[in-house]
Specification:
about 170 residues, alpha+beta, 6-stranded mixed sheet, 4-stranded antiparallel sheet, about 30% strand
């Protein structure tokens, strides 16, 4: 469950592939980041936005969140694994809500069926672009601002590409 527009909304059940990508990204970030500076989680704590409380697939929050309140205080990176039933939200209202967070450095959307990612990164001027940068293939790498890391898609998409991106 999550809150959207002031009402409680049921979240969709993730596919096995979705859960696998989420787990790999969370483990990679948890290993790569300093736990004294960042907390890496999935689904909780919630991220309060102007319109709702979101529960992203993967969240990197600056340490200092009130874990008792179960809310993120300073999200630095938010990642969602997109599914057919969440695509419109992941590329619509979540972009608007997440990129309005003052602490956010990047919003990352990962495709569940192949190594493909879209990222909105905060610019030096402090704004986000209207359109994301798209990266495709296991050889693609994604600099993650605010974290000092570069993610290789091969780290979270090992093996053969099996399902094509929908046209």
């Amino acid at each position: 469950m999550g809150r959207s527009g002031g009402r409680i909304a049921k979240m969709t059940e993730p596919s096995a592939k979705h859960a696998e990508i989420t787990a790999r990204l969370r483990m990679w970030l948890g290993t790569a980041l300093d736990p004294e500076r960042f907390a890496v989680s999935s689904f909780d704590p919630g991220v309060p936005t102007e319109r709702s409380i979101r529960h992203p697939d993967v969240l990197v929050d600056a340490q200092g969140s009130d874990r008792a309140a179960n809310l993120a205080a300073a999200p630095v990176l938010i990642a969602e694994v997109t599914e057919p039933q969440t695509y419109a939200t992941d590329f619509g209202s979540k972009v608007v809500e997440y990129t309005s967070l003052p602490s956010l450095a990047a919003y990352l959307v990962l495709f569940r069926n192949e190594p493909r990612a879209w990222i909105w990164r905060r610019t030096a001027e402090g704004t986000f672009p209207e359109e994301p940068e798209m990266l495709v293939g296991r050889e693609a790498t994604i600099p993650l601002p605010g974290l000092g890391l570069t993610l290789a898609l091969s780290d979270i998409y090992p093996g053969e590409e099996t399902d094509a991106f929908p046209a």
